[in-house]
Predict the structure of Cytidine uridine-specific hydrolase.
Amino acid sequence: MDTDPGIDDAAALTMALNDPQIDLKLITSVAGNVTVDKTTKNAQKIVRFFNEKVPVAAGAKQPLIKEFEDAARIHGESGMPGYDFPEDLPKPLDVSAVEALHDAIMSSDEKITLVPTGSYTNIALLFSEYPEVKDHIERIVAMGGSLGKGNMTSAAEFNVFTDPDAARIMYNSGIPITMVGLDITMKALLTPDSLSKLEHMNETGKMLHDIISQDGDNSDKGIAMHDVNTIFYLLHPEAITTKKMWIDIVTDGPAIGETVGDIRGAYHDGKTNANVCVDIDAEAFNKWFLEEVSQIQK
Ligand code: BDR
Ligand code: CA
């Protein structure tokens, strides 16, 4: 997982670290919701919370070309406020995210799945420096983008807006990509009822409740758990409707960061580079979220 915790990233990491069907090999951090020093530390806090051994490698401090803008107004100054995590954190790896990704991918017996839940800077750098890794990646399941409106600008979703040049490289990589965008993440809100059930479930539920309650983007209907939808998709693809199409990324101008879906297949002659999530069973998402947490032994 390549991530920028981030409240919803932390929840996604929680599911990935604990679900027995997922073999999480490596966590890499990227600047996004907050600076990379903070996102690295936040990823380590989650690993430490569960006493897990999954390595964390620090990644890109800034986008490839565009200037870095964080989302601390939503995720707080630390990126993961509201809960007192242990301070004795494991050390990050000595190598950079790109080196760590290369080593993990090339040393794996099986093809791996990349799950980016921040901007795609590390992924773009990895593909530029080590194009050979592409043959060892089964697929990419990435949070980001939208066929409708954005959440950063009218056109752009935050992860793609943060580093559109990286997004363009990733979408042109030739690797099968599932776009887990706002079209579903704004539908599968964690309801106020689900949030309150988390609080007294177990220590993990309390931790998630406490950090999710700090999310600056909540409404009466609930809170979007954007990044968690990637894990839900991996485990329950039957609860999500997808549509194959070509996705282009706008890299300048007023629509910078927009993911343009060739819905009619007109521009790219019906060729596709992505499987775009277009609908989700929001009730099943809430049910699964609570079940996952209730099964965690902490
Ligand atoms: C994405 O932006 C970030 O703030 C969230 O962590 C998520 O990855 C949603 O647009
Ligand atoms: Ca994120």
The first strand starts at residue 2 and ends at 3.
